[in-house]
């Protein structure tokens, strides 16, 4: 959990979320707060992020996934099975 909570002001209870939702959302949207870790029974239950931060995380995950696929393809690349670009265009253009 040390990585989850970097500062004490990031922890917020479920009760506080239900009481102050608008204020919490406004703080996240304005950039005043970078994230909240919602605590239930003294344990992390959820993380609230601004949309831009969430999208950046999703983009990074997708980039890493594409990189892993590319690395695997390079690792298993067999030049004997490769075809030229022109052959690929003919194949998929229906020629």
Which structural class do the helices and strands define? alpha+beta
pLDDT averaged residue by residue: 92
Helical content, roughly? 40-55%
Order of helices and strands: EHHEEHH
Shape type: elongated
Oligomer classification: single chain
Total separate domains: 2
What composes the largest sheet?
Answer: 3 strands, mixed
Could you please say which CATH topology of the largest domain applies here?
A: YefM-like fold
Number of helices: 4
The CATH C-level name of the largest domain is Alpha Beta
Sequence stretches where pLDDT stays below 50 over 5 or more residues: none
Query: What Rg, in angstroms, do the CA atoms define?
Result: 23 Å
The order of strands across the largest sheet is: 1-2-3
Q: Report the count of strand segments.
A: 3
Please report which band the strand proportion falls in: under 5%, 5-15%, 15-25%, 25-35%, 35-45% or over 45%. Answer: 5-15%
The CATH architecture name of the largest domain reads 3-Layer(aba) Sandwich
């Amino acid at each position: 959990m040390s990585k989850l909570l970097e500062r004490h002001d990031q922890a917020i209870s479920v009760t506080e979320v239900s009481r102050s939702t608008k204020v919490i959302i406004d703080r996240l949207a304005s950039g005043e707060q970078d994230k909240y870790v919602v605590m239930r029974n003294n344990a992390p239950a959820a993380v609230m992020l601004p949309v831009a931060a969430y999208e950046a995380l999703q983009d990074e995950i997708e980039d890493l996934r594409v990189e892993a696929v590319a690395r695997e393809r390079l690792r298993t690349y067999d030049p004997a099975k490769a075809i030229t670009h022109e052959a690929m265009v003919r194949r998929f253009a229906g020629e």
